[in-house]
Design brief:
The complex is a heterodimer of chains A (118) and B (112).
Chain A: E1 5-7, E2 10-13, E3 19-24, E4 31-37, E5 43-50, E6 53-56, E7 65-68, E8 75-79, E9 88-95, E10 108-109, E11 113-117
Parallel strand pairs in A: 2-11
Antiparallel strand pairs in A: 1-3, 3-8, 4-5, 4-9, 5-6, 7-8, 9-10, 9-11
Chain B: E1 4-5, E2 10-14, E3 19-25, E4 30-38, E5 45-51, E6 56-59, E7 62-67, E8 72-77, E9 86-94, E10 101-102, E11 106-111
Classes of the chains: A mainly beta (118), B mainly beta (112).
Chain lengths: 118, 112
């Protein structure tokens, strides 16, 4: 059973360009979470999605950032007009169950995408 | 406002001895706590968790203790092995469970 897949693993963008980060959850998982880790800090929640729905985007910056999880295909985190402060590791996680039920909250993480903005 | 804090950025332990990693939280709505282990250039790996209705959970060499009145939890690793050297993150969730709130991490170094 393949784990959570993220691509690309490394992404370099110049200021003002767009960054697209992809996440394929584990097989059978329909809940996806995105987290951002700035250097020397812990992971910070950004957004929680189910197929075709954004459930909680309370951690997402109001501008330039968007996320989707279409019916078919991977989840996408999109950052428009990137700035140097967007440089970070972006992790995707997936879980098999609805939060609050069963073995809840156990989220399985992908290897991350390291975004560098020049 | 940091709701989950790991006050020790690093910890060095001799192989075979006990490693104790600590975590404090402020949000009394948290009811589920997890520890993740992270190697460089990899994603966090789930290690062990505990529900707020328990005060201890054990899995092999790893034991997590929860003191709700003190809003404190700790991870004990015994005996420590060099392969345990990694960054350990404490995380917490409330009943809604949508998001995990992470501490800043503790880098554990186990010396042979």
């Amino acid at each position: 059973n393949a784990g959570v897949m993220q691509n690309p693993r490394h992404l370099v963008r110049r200021r003002g360009q767009e960054a697209r980060l992809r996440c394929s959850p584990m097989k059978g998982h329909s809940h996806v979470y995105w987290y951002r880790q700035l250097p020397e800090e812990g992971l910070k929640f950004m957004v929680y999605l189910q197929k075709e729905n954004i459930i909680d985007e309370s951690g997402m910056p109001k501008e330039r950032f968007s996320a989707e999880f279409p019916k078919e295909g991977p989840s996408i985190l999109r950052i428009q007009q990137v700035v140097r402060g967007d440089s970070a590791a972006y992790f995707c996680a997936s879980s098999p169950v609805v939060p609050g039920q069963g073995r809840y909250n156990e989220q399985f993480f992908g290897p991350g995408t390291r975004l560098t903005v020049l | 406002d940091q709701q989950v804090k790991q006050n020790s950025p690093s910890l060095s332990v001799q192989e075979g001895r006990i490693s104790i990693l600590n975590c404090d939280y402020t949000n009394s709505m948290f009811d589920y706590f997890l520890w993740y282990k992270k190697y460089p250039a990899e994603g966090p790996t789930f290690l062990i968790s505990i529900s707020s209705i328990k005060d201890k959970n054990e899995d092999g060499r790893f034991t997590v203790f929860l003191n709700k009145s003190a809003k404190h939890l700790s991870l004990h690793i015994v005996p420590s092995q060099p392969g345990d050297s990694a960054v350990y993150f404490c995380a917490a969730s409330n009943n809604a469970g949508n998001m995990l709130t992470f501490g800043g991490g503790t880098r554990l170094m186990v010396k042979p």
